[in-house]
Amino acid sequence: MRYAMIQSLEAEFSINLMCRCLMVSRSGYFHWKKRPPSPRAQSQEAMSNEIKRVFDDEKARAGSPRIAKRLNEEGHRVSRHTVAKIMKSKGWRAKAARKYKARTNSNHGLPVAPNLLELNFEATMPDQKWVSDITYIWTDEGWLYLAVILELYSRKVIGWALSERMTAKLVCDALTMALWRRKLPKGVIVHSDRGSQYCSVTYQALLRRHQLICSMSKKGDCYDNAAMESWNHSFKVKAIHGERLLTRDEAKKHVFDYIEVYYNRKRLHSKLGYLCPEAFELKLVS
Fold first, then answer.
1. What's the domain count of the chain?
2. Domain annotation covers residue 205
3. pLDDT tens-digit profile of 166-185?
4. Which domain holds residue 51?
5. Is the pLDDT of residue 97 over 50?
6. Are residues 166 and 71 part of one domain?
7. Which domain of life is it from (predicted)?
8. Which residues in 202-228 are b (16+ Cβ under 10 Å) and which e?
């Protein structure tokens, strides 16, 4: 333990001084340094390399529970606590949480729908409940707005659209993608806030045309759309925070990578038995 401490501080203090302070011989320290690593140390170093590989593949988005799950699925026997201990010793931390919220305009005279979800974000079958919202992304060229539709049974992003303006067309484009991806289901509850985009004549007509059921949060109550707020929060923390996006085109590629490559097909969900949304849906039909 004392030799390891000396080694870690070699760049800051004299070896002779540290050996005297810790009451160990200089020759003993150099003999210790020349010894080959023990099998246990070699095993721990190999595991550290595997953890770093997954951590980098997740782009620092995953903490110890998801990394441990991925490693075990790959055939490595390692506990969450071991992964957490190694990550802490190496200084590898998942991206930290911050609060973000795009404000839609709910001060309008358009008709609103009742809240049909009433904070119940659990679905018992596919395409029973969808939630939606708009968030925003800053680039050096200006703002870019992202509308997302989340399917609550599998937690899969089934529709999304990007625009320089926060308009009714933006949310209609996201809903249209969801409809075609899910093969035009009927009777789905589609929940959102009371923003003017969701209350617009165009969006409401699209819902009625496809026999979808509109549901809306109470005015100013973010908890009424908590599942979608949680997704937006994770997206901002894990995909946007710390990134400098020079152009809107670069941001669009960044969003595609996060949603279609990472979130839907790689990110493990505890609610889904540590499966990603794509794998969870494939398991249902297998």
1. 3
2. yes
3. 999 999 999 999 999 999 99
4. 39-90
5. no
6. no
7. Bacteria
8. ebbebbeebebbbbbbeeeeeebbebb
Q: Where are the alpha helices (DSSP H) in 22-150?
A: 26-34, 39-57, 64-73, 80-90
Place of tokens 């960044």: 254
Share of residues in the chain with pLDDT > 70 (%): 92
189-192 vs 213-216, strand pairing mode:
parallel
Q: Is the pLDDT of residue 103 over 80?
A: no
CA within 13 Å, CB half, 135: 21
Q: What is the DSSP letter of 24?
A: -
Q: pLDDT band for position 17 (50/70/90)? A: confident
CA distances from 177 to 108, 206, 255 (A): 27, 12, 15
Residue tagged 């809107």 (tokens)? 248
- pTM across the whole model: 0.68
Residue pLDDT, tens place only, 47-84: 888 888 888 787 676 778 888 888 888 888 888 888 88
The Cα–Cα gap between 74 and 56 comes to 16
| 106 falls within a domain | no
Contact 278, 264 (CB under 8 A): yes
**Rounded CA separation 277/263 (Å):** 8
Residue 133: what are its φ and ψ, rounded to 5°? Answer: -170, 170
Q: Which two tokens stand for residue 126?
A: 């596919």
| Closest listed residue to residue 198, CA positions, set 268, 114, 93, 105 | 105
